[in-house]
Every structure is written in structure tokens, then in C-alpha cells.
Amino acid sequence: MNFLTNIWTARILVIIGFLAGWNSLGATFAHVGSDAFLLTDQAPIVQTHSWHHFLRELGAQFGAMAAILVILFAAPQYRTPITWWVMVILMVGFYAPFWIGVPFDPAYGAPNMSAEINHLSMAVPALIGAFLARRHFVGSKPTVERGAVEAHEA
Question: Is the pLDDT of residue 133 over 60?
């Protein structure tokens, strides 16, 4: 049972989820420059705008992954309920786009079963890791001393 409560189990699961995403990130990056991902010929000024969105997505994904890892590997005094919630919100923002549009139009989902499995292999371990890490963030008291302003407000 100690295996499930160890912070390293949570960290490893999140890293496994991120590593599983390399296929998806690679596929996304491969869209840039591909004529198959040009927008309509009737709007030549924005034909390559979809490539901009792929690059923007890559930047957002790397930023979210970096922030999540900073939170997970932070020293114990920085593990608070707020930092845990920030991590979970970042993960929801990272993984929800895989499925959020599907109820409205199935075309918003993964293009094939292989991509769907890849999305699940990214999200499931990372989210399990986040919830296993929760006990290390919630109910713990930061050990950082309060400054004069915080002591006065308390």
C-alpha cells in the first residue's frame, strides 16, 4: 500500500502520461507545412493559419507540462491545496480538448482509434498520478515562516 501513497509513484505516472504524448506531439508538429492541413483556398490570406494553431498548441502543452512538473517536484513546504488545484486545472486544460467537443460533433474527437488510445494513454496515468499526489498537498501545512504582513492579517 505504501506504493500508492508514495509521491514518486504519482510523479512517475505523470511522467509516463507526458511521455506517451510524444507520439501525439510529433503528429501535431508534422501537420505544420503539410498541404493536407491548409485552410480553404477561398481564404488565401489565412491558408496557413492552422499551422499557427498547431505551433501555439505545442507551446501551451510544453508550458503546462513544465508547470505541472515544477509543482510535483516542489519542496514539501510548497505543496498546498492551492498548488494541487493549479496542477489539476492545468491537467484538465491539457487533456479536456481531446474529448470536450465530441458531444457536439464526433468530428471534434480523435481521427482514429489509434489516436484515441494514445490520448487515453496520456491522460489516464497523469490524472491518476495527480489524484495519488493529492494527499501530499492537501492537509499538509507549509513550513515557510509567515512575514510580518501575514502574521498581522492572521
Answer: yes
